[in-house]
Amino acid sequence: MKCSISSIKEGIIRISKHENMPEKYMERYGIIKIPEKEAVDNVEIEENSVILPSGRKLNFTLRPEEDDTLWNDEQEYQLEKFKEFMPWRRNVEGAMENRLENASEDWKDIMDARKSTKKFGISFEIKENEKFYGLGEGNRKRIEHRGSSYQNWPVYQYNEVVIPLVYTQENWGVLILAEDRHFVDIDDHIKGRLTILGNLDELDILILYGDSIKDIIKLYIEVSGKSMLLPKYVYGLTYIAPMYQNQFEILNDMMKYREKHIPVDNVSLEPGWMNNYYDYSFDKDWNLSKFDIHPWMRKREYPSQFLSVMRRFGFHVGLWNCSYYDLCDHEERLVTGVGQLPSWYEHLKKFVNAGVDGFKMDPSDMLIRVDPNKIYTNGKSELEMHNISQVLVLKQMYKGFTEQTGNRPYLHFSGGYTGQQHWGGVTTGDNGGKEGSMIWLLNLAMSGFMNTTVDMDIYSPETIHFAMLAPWAHHNAWEGCRQPWYAGEENERIYTYYARLRYRLLPYIYSAAIECHETGIPMLRPMPMEFQDDNNCLELSNQYMLGEYILLSAFTDKVYLPKGGWIDYWTGEEYESQGETITYTIPKERGGAFFIKKGAIIPQWSDRDYVTQYGEEEIALHIYPNFNEKSTYVFYEDDGISVDYEKNICSQTEISCECVEGKVLVHIGKREGDYQNKPEKRIWKIYVHGFDGNVTVSCAEKTAEVVVILAPHEA
Question: Phi and psi dihedrals of 192, rounded to 5?
Fold first, then answer.
């Protein structure tokens, strides 16, 4: 068998069945964009191999389309894995037992319906020491994937967010352009090889290569789209209210948050807000017995309606939503004019007019129910469109909301496929935020995702620690008594402390979010991504970096400190590591380790109960000097709400710190770039930690006010 191999541009090689591959639905619907061809002269292409600029020779073999032995073996193997998963689901969710008992058989029927004589396979030789990453939520036990096989097809709680990107620490990888279900075997059934097996698609993959893992992620983002920037308030705390509460019960709870000074910005309503529970139709409306929002109230400025009252106290409101819809119909209408159904967003406009700020998409039938007999407007079956539909639902909602308002929506879903990061956030749905969900977030970060979170378990200090310091914090109180004041005095203190800590860190967190949008590097940075050259980091699954300077761990008493200086934020203890693992005792009323990398420059706010409670003129810079080298940090800011970020409209301030002759020299550059409502004047409060000598601060903006404070350690 032969195939077409061509260099697309520096860093991307395409291997496909033939040179003129038909347009994919992912391209047709604007989910991916293959770059235009550019001249590349540093890649050698042979019949069944590619020699990269690094000198690495990628040898591969193709499998004949008619040979389905491996496909059938892999399909049976994945079915057995799913059966092992189902008893766990039954034990946890007893109410769903009858439905789930038949789930594995239903899935087998779906898998059998995929039988086809049109299959593809490609297999690469791999080195003995290569480590493999990516694949979205394919693995919840570890971050390195060698020795396992994976199915790229979203299934509720089993593998919800599927990203068909797999790569190695030797800086090459594969983005699989298949749209239907396919398998990835990494040195599992087929030893010493990375094997990709597809069904109903034709062979079409991109080889991505560069000088680092971060280069691979940037190339993936170039093809599949930059990460969406959520509204700034979403990077505070999101609270999902209990399902059966009415507006007065919710308001009462939210007033308790304000009275107790527990910061929160975003409140999401579960399906109890609807007049018809789990309403999939375009006719959904408010449940007027719970939310007294009559037609004459449905304007954002109506002062006594529930949404207006919430906004008055600094709360934004999102609505739970579910869909079982031919999302391709609207996309076809945009491309060809054929199609009659409106965008899924169309019927949600009235809620946005009333003051709703965004939507949570429930997995419901998007991930649980798949009808093998359903045919979409484009002539494809629901099975064939299953992967793509996970992305289209958020795409249509994002575009509809931004076109209607000019602002960004609060938008997330616990399903996904290639390009999902461009249209919204992701939650690891209905799993309580334990260790497995943390590893899912690490794997999603290694797959180019930024806006990820978990359902916080407020009865677990470890989960509070991890979930409050995830990319965005998400407390799902949808059932039971999950308000923080019902979790016991100690848990409430822990919850409150971490919520306030997160809000103080919000300038640092949000700056990392803007940086990710511009560069592709997520704010949650797994250890193999941030310390790729340290072999001790390549399989670490219980710790990560939050941005450039904060190291966090959870669900472990072991913490690996890469070479360099580190400060325990809780205790102030300093470590000079040569690359060592320490046994860590978590302090009382904390849930895990929190270390600051020496050289850190961390912008913070003073305490506040919600993002816009106070202005943004004053920024505290917490500096932890590294006496061995100069450190430089870029602080990103924007208006926090508009879609100007799509045009990279923001401000950047370069800040540096170095130690010279026993003095600490801090330089604050000019705030380069403008944005809506940019503070006219900046007040910088400089906190220098661990140093009691001479500090000199220079500032490029002469109108700025600078205050220097020699700070003892503050936890």
Answer: 70, 20
At 69 the pLDDT is: 76
User: What is the phi/psi pair of residue 623, to 5°?
Assistant: -115, 130
Q: In this predicted model, which residue has the larger pLDDT, 95 or 37? A: 37
State both tokens at 492. 């409430």
Helix axes 506-519, 489-504, angle to 10 degrees: 60
- List pLDDT tens digits, range 105-159: 555 666 666 566 678 899 999 999 999 999 999 998 999 999 999 999 888 888 8
In 3D space, the residue among 277, 301, 303 whose CA is nearest the CA of residue 289 turns out to be 277
Q: Which residue has the tokens 């507006």?
A: 247
CATH 2.60.40.1180 fits 615-711, yes or no: yes
What are the start-end ranges of the E strands in 584-690? 594-597, 601-604, 618-623, 631-637, 651-660, 663-668, 683-689
Rounded to a whole number of angstroms, the CA Rg of the chain reads 25
Find out whether 170 and 207 touch, Cβ atoms under 8 Å.
no
The answer to whether residues 623 and 689 touch, using CB atoms and an 8 Å cutoff, is yes
DSSP assignment of 441-507, as one string?
A: HHHHHTTT--SEEE---TT-HHHHHHHHTSSSEEEE--SSS-SGGGS-HHHHHHHHHHHHHHHHTHH
Distance CA 598, CA 626 (A): 5
Q: What is the DSSP-derived secondary structure letter of residue 138? A: S
CATH superfamily of 521-597: Golgi alpha-mannosidase II (2.60.40.1180)
Is the pLDDT confidence value at 301 over 90? Answer: no
* 316 within 8 A of 233, measured Cβ to Cβ: yes
At 261, which amino acid appears?
H
Classified by CATH at the fold level, domain 4-224 comes out as Immunoglobulin-like (2.60.40)
Relative to beta strand 543-546, strand 550-553 is antiparallel
pLDDT at 390: 94
What is the rounded CA–CA span in Å between residue 108 and residue 102?
A: 10
Q: Which two tokens stand for residue 341?
A: 């159904």
Q: Where in the chain is CATH 2.60.40.1180?
A: 521-597, 615-711
Give which of 523, 528, 557 is closest to 541, Cα–Cα: 528
